[in-house]
Design brief:
Layout (H helix, E strand, L loop, with lengths): L12 H4 L1 H14 L5 H6 L3 H17 L4 H14 L3 H13 L4 H9 L8 H16 L4 H8 L4 H24 L9
Helix pairs in contact: 5-6, 5-8, 5-10, 8-9
């Protein structure tokens, strides 16, 4: 017998509303998943879901940081937070943006790796500091500021904390994976 460990059961159309249900279906189709459990769960809180969607969308692909860099940040945050849900999604997405499995493995084993540029190392170091110490040191900030303008630095910080918050939410709500284990 399998024990259902979810704390809140995702439900369907009646509970999340037609528009949210359509958004969840579109999101699932976009990532090739039968269901997007994170979206379906968040959609239970309709107003909060609608506030979160544009913010998350802006950070994911509508911001000023190049998409490869965005995916690198998300992968590192998901790795540090041990969030398999986000790793499953963003390993696939990162490949679409040119970050192959070999590169992704380097992101996960940093600093014990070769093959990362100074830019990549600066970004990963900043992610690590933000996640592990809740801030970014002056030296690390200076290294990051060499590659990013002020608006990008603000976005970079919010991107880290957005995906860290998602990882914590996914863990707390015990949201199921969208794909079988990779």
């Amino acid at each position: 017998m399998t024990i259902d460990r979810r704390r809140i059961r995702s439900r369907g159309l009646r509970d999340i509303g037609l528009i949210n249900w359509i958004i969840c279906r579109i999101a699932a189709r976009a990532v090739g998943a039968p269901e997007m459990h994170l979206f379906a769960m968040l959609a239970l809180h309709k107003r909060l879901f609608w506030a979160w969607l544009p913010f998350s969308g802006m950070l994911l692909g509508g911001g000023r940081i190049p998409r490869q860099d965005t995916e690198l940040v998300i992968l590192r945050v998901a790795h540090l937070c041990k969030c398999e849900y986000e790793l499953q999604h963003h390993r696939r997405i990162a490949r679409k943006y040119g970050l192959d499995s070999e590169f992704q493995d380097r992101v996960f084993v940093y600093p014990d790796c070769d093959g990362l540029t100074h830019r990549h190392r600066a970004m990963i170091k900043a992610v690590d500091e933000m996640v592990l110490t809740r801030t970014i040191s002056d030296n690390t900030w200076a290294g990051l500021a060499f590659y990013f303008d002020e608006k990008q630095l603000i976005e970079f910080s919010l991107l880290i904390t957005q995906y860290e918050a998602l990882a914590a939410t996914i863990s707390a709500l015990q949201i199921r994976l969208d794909f079988a284990r990779d």
